[in-house]
Amino acid sequence: MADLQANIDRVSRAFADAVTAGKFRLADRIAGLVERGESAADVQQAIAGLDVDDLLTASGLRADIDELGRAYAGQVLSVMQQFAPVSPEVLAALVEADKARYLQVVQGEIADLVRGIQRTILTGGDARAIRAVASQGISRAQVETLVNTSMNTFSRTVTALQAQQAPAEALYVYAGPVDGRTRDLCLKLAAAGELTRDEIERLAPGSFRDGGGFNCRHQWLPVGTVARRYQSQAQDAIAARGTKWTDPPSFQQQLEARDAAAE
User: Fold this and answer.
1) Which pLDDT does position 54 carry in this prediction?
2) Residue 83 and residue 146 in one domain
3) HSE of 167, CA atoms in CB hemisphere, 13 A
4) Domain span at residue 16?
5) CA 18 distance to own-chain centroid
6) Helices 40-48 and 88-122: angle between axes, nearest 10 degrees
7) Last residue of a domain, one of 158, 187, 220
8) Residue 187 contacts by C-beta under 8 Å, 6 or more apart in sequence?
9) Contact call for residues 196 and 241 (beta carbons, < 8 A)
10) Over the stretch 87-112, which tens digit does the pLDDT of each residue have?
11) Are the beta carbons of 207 and 195 closer than 8 angstroms?
């Protein structure tokens, strides 16, 4: 489990770095036109001649998304607990779905970047101001959280698919880091010990798929595939937090409550 999360963290950081670098490469390319003495009108025309797909390729971000997709097999599946088969077609479909989500996010970032640069040029901004636009928009930390959450959700989804082939009485434990970053919900689940799927669903609906929510580093794994230290560690952490610990709803219940309040 530690190796899995370490690999996910490493891939998340690498892609966040790649998105940041890609945005700055694109802004630098356009700023270079200004530095070479191109008129504002000519620069705007050059920008207008590029669509988002061209810009994704030019910035290197399309290749980065493809590399991220390959990391799912190389960095996640390779170290996951494989306790039942999942068809390659299903795994490929899950990976492609996540790649499509990353592509959508990056396309939005590139489109926003181009609009920001165009506004900067229209208001007389120089090359330095154009490069500064690349620091706006989604932050590096937000990209890292997106990838970390998506890859952990992918891992939990594969585990859930494997669990469908297990008997109803099969037992699972909630595994993952117990530290200062661990949210109360994850401590609650880890402290619960060995549970069946039905017991897990009653305790925290949706947690087999969602874990504790965004950026969660935990998942349910079959008893016997991981050390049982997590239960005692979580119980000790809850005791240490004392009155600061609350008995939280699951992530699914939180979303349902939010939707109900919005109606």
Assistant:
1) 81
2) yes
3) 3
4) 2-158
5) 14
6) 160
7) 158
8) 178, 234, 237, 238, 241, 245
9) no
10) 889 888 999 999 999 999 999 999 99
11) no
